[in-house]
């Protein structure tokens, strides 16, 4: 069985973060290990409080996993402080493991999720990442792109970048992959009812990481994961009174 390490926060509501990553990995028959960066008090209605863990303790968690498991892929999610970002960088910079970086900085609704210092330091992880998966707000923040034309004019990067939901309409959504060699590939899917989308970003990147761990090529991993997320939203269980979780297991 292939192994993924998720470095991310915990969601007490079970729909996003580490919990979503584990469920996504389980669906793709991958074993997921974890290094928790923050513990949140949250539900479908919002986040009530966050406790960011000490960077040194996060580093110990990461090393504990790496010293015992043969990790095939690393997925990085929410890193709540500049010091934490830099501590994670210390560990990953010399690893020969594909890293899927979900640069959690701005929510799907456009709300800032971490400090300006942490946002700026996140850029230091880009060159060590195999794939970066910004949403449309993060695409503007980190790469100054807001359209397909902007992506076409973007200078070649050291990492592959998947710009999520760059084109949206009532019936479809399109993600744009900019590969390191400059090739641009579009991934289109139907748009599901958006009443239950909590944790879709975490689940999407975790799904891609799981498939990369199983030796799928990047394009196939994205295509399969995008369809997986669509079906998981479409078959969401309507839990909670707010933006509910998706159905990770699809049963």
From TrEMBL:
Coiled coil: none annotated. Its EC number is 2.7.1.49. Keywords: Kinase, Transferase. The keyword Transferase applies. Pathway: Cofactor biosynthesis; thiamine diphosphate biosynthesis. InterPro entries: HMP/HMP-P_kinase_dom (IPR004399), PM/HMP-P_kinase-1 (IPR013749), Ribokinase-like (IPR029056). It comes from the Bacteria. GO terms for molecular function: hydroxymethylpyrimidine kinase activity; phosphomethylpyrimidine kinase activity. Residues 11-247 form the Pyridoxamine kinase/Phosphomethylpyrimidine kinase domain. SUPFAM superfamilies: Ribokinase-like. One of its GO terms (cellular component) is cytosol. One of its GO terms (biological process) is thiamine biosynthetic process. PANTHER family: HYDROXYMETHYLPYRIMIDINE_PHOSPHOMETHYLPYRIMIDINE KINASE THI20-RELATED, PHOSPHOMETHYLPYRIMIDINE KINASE. This is hydroxymethylpyrimidine kinase. The lineage of its organism: Bacteria, Pseudomonadati, Campylobacterota, Epsilonproteobacteria, Campylobacterales. The gene is thiD.
């Amino acid at each position: 069985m292939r192994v993924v390490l998720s470095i991310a926060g915990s969601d007490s509501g079970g729909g996003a973060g580490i919990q979503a990553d584990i469920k996504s990995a389980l669906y793709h028959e991958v074993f997921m290990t974890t290094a928790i960066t923050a513990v949140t008090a949250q539900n479908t209605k919002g986040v009530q409080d966050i406790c960011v863990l000490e960077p040194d303790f996060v580093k110990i968690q990461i090393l504990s996993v790496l010293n015992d498991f043969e990790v095939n892929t690393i997925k990085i999610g929410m890193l709540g402080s500049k010091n934490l970002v830099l501590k994670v960088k210390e560990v990953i910079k010399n690893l020969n493991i594909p890293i899927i970086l979900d640069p959690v900085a701005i929510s799907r609704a456009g709300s800032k999720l971490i400090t300006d210092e942490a946002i700026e330091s996140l850029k230091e992880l880009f060159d060590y990442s195999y794939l970066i998966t910004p949403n449309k707000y993060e695409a503007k923040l980190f790469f100054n792109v807001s359209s397909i034309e902007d992506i076409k004019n973007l200078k070649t990067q050291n990492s592959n970048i998947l710009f999520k939901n760059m084109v949206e309409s009532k019936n479809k959504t399109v993600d744009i992959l900019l590969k390191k060699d400059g090739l641009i590939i579009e991934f289109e899917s139907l748009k599901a009812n958006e009443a239950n989308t909590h944790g879709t970003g975490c689940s999407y990147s975790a799904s891609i990481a799981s498939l990369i761990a199983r030796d799928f090529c990047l394009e196939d991993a994205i295509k399969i994961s995008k369809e997986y997320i669509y079906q998981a939203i479409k078959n969401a269980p309507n839990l909670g009174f707010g933006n509910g979780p998706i159905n990770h297991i699809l049963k």
